[in-house]
Amino acid sequence: MKLPFSYYSNQDVLFLAKDLLGKVLFTKINGNITAGIIVETEAYFGIQDKASHAYGGRRTDRTETLYSHGGISYVYLCYGIHNLFNVVTSVENDPHAVLIRAIEPLIGKEIMESRRNMPASKAAISSGPGSAAKALGIDRTFNQKDLSGAEIWIENQNTQYSSDEIESGPRVGVAYAGEDALLPWRFWVKGNKYVSKYKP
């Protein structure tokens, strides 16, 4: 059920950002498994995307992960507080990525509740990228992990959304990207309560 390595090599990051909706993101930490259905994503289109960390071919110790072959994780710290989890996609040296912005708790809800200090029925437990990562126990130690490994992986459990069930809009918090900030590259499941509340 794990997505194969070849899945992540697709060079159409917008397709993958939509296709990942409904897939299930798993972590296994100290023998404890937690998982959630991906319900909100954002696409980052590599060197041509002003909102991407790799815009203009920028290569630093942090962004080097983005230049890997698709199928590994890119986790970075935002505002010095939140760990944000991204799926690196495309082929080597084509630094595309999909930010996972929200999940619907599925497995290990009690563990998520402990990590977030709130009930799983409360949308805020995993709404927004920082909350989703924290609920799943994802921190900077998960950077550069193989997404078909034993610590973090994504499965296809045959939850699929039709185009009518998916909405799109501008990405969040990328005003610095000028006109690219307006691109409708955030995708979410219509009506899902775990989707972040941001509205453009």
UniProtKB/TrEMBL annotation:
<keyword id="KW-0234">DNA repair</keyword>
<comment type="similarity">
    <text>Belongs to the DNA glycosylase MPG family.</text>
</comment>
<dbReference type="GO" id="GO:0003905">
    <property type="term" value="F:alkylbase DNA N-glycosylase activity"/>
</dbReference>
<protein>
    <recommendedName>
        <fullName>Putative 3-methyladenine DNA glycosylase</fullName>
        <ecNumber>3.2.2.-</ecNumber>
    </recommendedName>
</protein>
<dbReference type="GO" id="GO:0006284">
    <property type="term" value="P:base-excision repair"/>
</dbReference>
<dbReference type="GO" id="GO:0003677">
    <property type="term" value="F:DNA binding"/>
</dbReference>
<dbReference type="InterPro" id="IPR036995">
    <property type="entry name" value="MPG_sf"/>
</dbReference>
<keyword id="KW-0378">Hydrolase</keyword>
<dbReference type="InterPro" id="IPR003180">
    <property type="entry name" value="MPG"/>
</dbReference>
<dbReference type="InterPro" id="IPR011034">
    <property type="entry name" value="Formyl_transferase-like_C_sf"/>
</dbReference>
<keyword id="KW-0227">DNA damage</keyword>
<dbReference type="Pfam" id="PF02245">
    <property type="entry name" value="Pur_DNA_glyco"/>
</dbReference>
